[in-house]
Amino acid sequence: MASMLLTQRLACSFQRNYRLLVPGSRHISQAAAKVDVEFDYDGPLMKTEVPGPRSRELMKQLNIIQNADAVHFFCNYEESRGNYLVDVDGNRMLDLYSQISSVPIGYSHPALMKLVQQPQNVSTFINRPALGILPPENFVEKLRESLISVAPKGMSQLITMACGSCSNENAFKTIFMWYRSKERGQTGFSKEELETCMVNQVEDLIVKYRKKKKTVAGIIVEPIQSEGGDNHASDDFFRKLRDISRKHGCAFLVDEVQTGGGCTGKFWAHEHWGLDDPADVMTFSKKMMTGGFFHKEEFRPNAPYRIFNTWLGDPSKNLLLAEVINVIKREDLLSNAAHAGKALITGLLDLQARYPQFISRVRGRGTFCSFDTPEESIRNKLILIARNKGVVLGGCGDKSIRFRPTLVFRDHHAHLFLNIFSDILADFK
Q1: Which of 204, 226, 337, 407 has its CB surrounded by the most CB atoms within 10 Å?
Q2: pLDDT one-digit tens code per residue, 242-294
């Protein structure tokens, strides 16, 4: 995947850039506001280059066991708090990448720390059941408190999974079953069909792939094409895409694995579109703590084990997600994402005007922002320099830098980053 290739290239760049020093930040605009989140740090603190000596040693050890070329650095999660990631060398960095967009409300949030320490929750974290056949007594209750409480419009059905990949794979399978069921007229399989389907399929596939005409069971789209370079489209484009899927009898699947969970200012990014007919299926993961997909009633499997794996998610993640949703509502973090995103975009546009040779095509929705650099080598170098100045950024596409902060990322964090990055651009060669 594009992200894997980028990680590999960045990792190689790390090896060539140990010579980078750790210069102090020169803030050229107003200082960042005082910390307003009880568990947040007040700013970056750099002690070594990144990766530092301890990280490099651990990378060597890991590489004996497995290929460790993708590793950026090793982390100290006990010391990481709020918007700040601390590495094993004691470097404290403002994390605007948040584990590839998967940390919803910051590191070690007090509400989640309290939750995992409660005696009544110990069993949930220790015993991981095969949910498809042996769910715990409180499974339905916890689903209602977590995922069902934020179900997208028009989708009453839910299947939980472990990650984004298996969520999408099983959503595809669900659509294929729905489409074939429509073709068959909702009838079941005969005994002969069940016995011959596998051997007959070999010849059937050969014949099918010799023909150019192929049917389409569904259309899948991301609200913002993330790994491909943070590419946006208008709300009207998505509405028309929905119309096309309806016209041709195709399912409409929205992949909210990276855009879901509130970072765009709405809980689900596709809520911005104003669809008159809701999507048929929607996948999620990352900030949602667990994977899975919502779908309409008509996509419900008509037999057991049609959509199945051993775990089908993890009850402990539903427990955590329920508390995450409580925090989002209590602290009005959807509004915060919109507000902080506006501060970030405004600042990026200002930097684009001042440094057009380095920044172009600033874009974003909420804090889900990005911009382009002239070429991949410049993008990678900027990410490395920023990391050594105390800011963790991510890349996407061929030459873009993307922002995936937590939902507790606020205006003063945006200003802090903008000041640091302005200094970087001013000195960049």
Answers
A1: 337
A2: 999 999 888 999 999 999 999 999 999 999 999 999 999 999 999 999 999 99
Neighbour count for residue 411 (Cβ, 10 Å): 18
- pLDDT, tens digit (0-9, with 9 covering 90-100), for 124-169: 999 999 999 999 999 999 999 999 999 999 999 999 999 999 999 9
- The Cα–Cα gap between 360 and 344 comes to 15
Domain boundaries, given as residue ranges, for the chain = 53-108+333-427, 115-331
- 53-108+333-427 folds as Aspartate Aminotransferase, domain 1 (3.90.1150)
Q: Do domains 53-108+333-427 and 115-331 have the same CATH topology?
A: no
The answer to whether residue 19 scores a pLDDT higher than 60 is: no
| CATH classification number, 115-331, choose in 2.30.40.10, 3.30.460.10, 3.40.640.10, 2.40.50.140 | 3.40.640.10
Strand order in the sheet with 84-86: 84-86, 92-95, 391-392
CA distance linking residue 20 with residue 282, whole number of Å: 44
Residue 282: phi and psi, rounded to 5, are -140, 125
Give residue 380's Cα distance to chain centre. Answer: 21
Q: Is there a contact between 65 and 6 (Cβ–Cβ < 8 Å)?
A: no
Q: What is the pTM of this model?
A: 0.85
| Nearest of 9, 49, 6, 29 to residue 417 by alpha carbon | 29
Question: Percentage of the chain surpassing pLDDT 70?
Answer: 86
